[in-house]
Amino acid sequence: MALVIDRLVKRFGPVVALDGMDFRVERGAIFGFLGANGAGKTTTIRIVLDLLKPDEGTTTWLGRPTDELPRRTWGYLPEERGLYPRMTVLDQLVFFAGLYGVERSNATRTVREWLERLRIPSAADRRTDELSKGNQQKVQFIAAIVHDPEVLIMDEPFSGLDPVNSAIMREAFLEMRGRGKTLVFSTHQMETVEALCESIVIVDRGRVVVGGAVREVKRASGRQVIRIALDEDGRADGPDHLAWLDGFQGARLTRPGADYVELTVPRGVDPQAILRAVLDRGDRVARFEIADPSLEEIFIERVGVRPGDPDDLVLTPSGTPETVPS
Description:
Low-confidence stretches: 309-326
Largest sheet: 6 strands, mixed
Helix content: 25-40%
Order of helices and strands: EEEHEEEHHHEHEHEEHEEEHEHEE
Strand order of the largest sheet: 6-7-8-3-9-10
Strand content: 25-35%
Shape: globular
Number of strands: 16
Radius of gyration: 23 Å
């Protein structure tokens, strides 16, 4: 393993932000670091980057403590914007690269190449505050990688992006992985995690509650998902006609649907038995699909909230906990 988070503990007064946080990230992988707001993700990231010190535990990269590594090892894309609004895009990205020791001509060339890849070449000579939120996010991504870091850590990298620009950013992530870079990102967009990540952890209240390869995490849930759509020619009730499946052989109807139904079925149940039962009633099946549960379903099951739900606790500027009303 390349990045090792080993039993981290971090307290802020009476609040335990990390309570034995422990996971591993393979070198050259895209890794999903998932959890509700306030679960301990940002605190963990700040410890890895040596912006905070843990009360207990260690973080290492390739066997070396992360607080002993040069800054250019890391690229960091924070959730909050960290750009100078009145400075041109090219000037500030070259400036950021210079902070890591990148020579100006090399930085200029790299910045222009990435602006072209991300389809915003005309942004080079524009001020940041003249750009859309999505294009500002692209600029912030370039700021995180302009010095060619070994590890890229990102907090909500798809914030403010429409579907087209999200796809462009996903292509950039895959390009970085193709260069041998290690990518760790936190997001509430579970479908993006399923599309990009080889492995994940889901954290809650400062601890890992589930982790591993995405496929293994899904299969370890102990259930499978079945989607059924009927040939509705001449049928007025559509998918409602399959409501009787709720409870059949332990199945649970999780999505009535406008055009199909979705069932969660225990792993010991043969999905073909459910298909046969539907056909035996004389129905014509237009679609029958067997799948693993989605990461969002597993997230809700393990954490008890939907991705993106508000914090239960936040820290005030003084560092004391404050309850956020629901």
